[in-house]
TrEMBL record:
PROSITE patterns (alphabetical): PROKAR_LIPOPROTEIN
Organism field: Flagellimonas iocasae
Protein name: Fibronectin type-III domain-containing protein
């Protein structure tokens, strides 16, 4: 009887010392509020002829202690970042320029982070008509290796938008040269995918030019991928 009591006491002690092995909760992605997606931001406070200060806002996310705001100039691909425990932050950014922005949620209890959606906007300037946002090349991911389909083709996919809502067309350039110089034709603004013929063990380059009804254009930049 004494032996059983001792063994039971040891078991209870081991359980009580074991603690809680559940991993800490990971942060969730923040919901973006302002500047709105595919919009023209006109509320910035002018800093000088070139810059205005914009107040970025998002909703708080669960299991999050701080946030990192990232704002990327789509003409130069240069990012600006700022860390904060609040759900808003001010940044001075170029006027009359397209930007992409997102928020990363961070927890001091977890090594994992969560990234919000990425929204595009134009920071208002002197322009009355804006070029389309540079097309966002979605698939294939740049630098990836992909499998061609049974027809020896790969599907190119992208996303396009325009703050003025007058996006008219896309022109896709594709080939083995960097930058690609072979036009695959003009596509209407509702078409954001195109199948292209490919060969195995070959690296290909592609880019998309977006044009609006005013003749304004933007360039996605060059992506590359390799075919198995």
């Amino acid at each position: 009887m004494i032996r059983k009591l001792i063994l039971w006491s040891i078991a209870v002690l081991l359980v009580s010392c074991g603690g809680n092995d559940d991993p800490p909760p990971v942060p969730e992605g923040a919901t973006l509020i302002f500047p709105e997606e595919n919009s023209e931001c006109t509320t910035g406070v002018s800093v000088n002829e070139a810059l205005s200060q914009v107040n970025f806002k998002w909703q708080a996310s669960d299991h999050t202690d701080s946030y990192t705001l990232s704002v990327v100039n789509l003409e130069t691909n240069v990012p600006q970042t700022i860390s904060t425990a609040a759900t808003s932050a001010n940044l001075s950014i170029a006027k009359g320029t397209p930007f992409a922005w997102s928020v990363t949620s961070i927890s001091s209890d977890s090594d994992q982070t969560a990234v919000s959606e990425t929204w595009l906007f134009y920071n208002a300037g002197a322009e009355t008509s804006y070029a389309p946002f540079p097309a966002q090349l979605v698939n294939p991911i740049s630098g990836s290796t992909v499998q061609r389909d049974i027809a020896n083709e790969v599907l190119l996919e992208w996303q396009g938008a325009d703050a003025d809502n007058d996006l008219a067309s896309f022109e896709v350039f594709f080939g083995e040269a960097n930058p690609p110089t072979t036009s695959m034709g003009i596509l209407d603004s509702d078409t954001m995918e195109l199948s292209v013929s490919v060969n195995a063990d070959t690296v290909y380059y592609w880019r998309v030019f977006s044009t609006d009804s005013e003749g304004n254009t933007s360039d996605s930049g060059v992506f590359d991928f390799k075919v198995f």
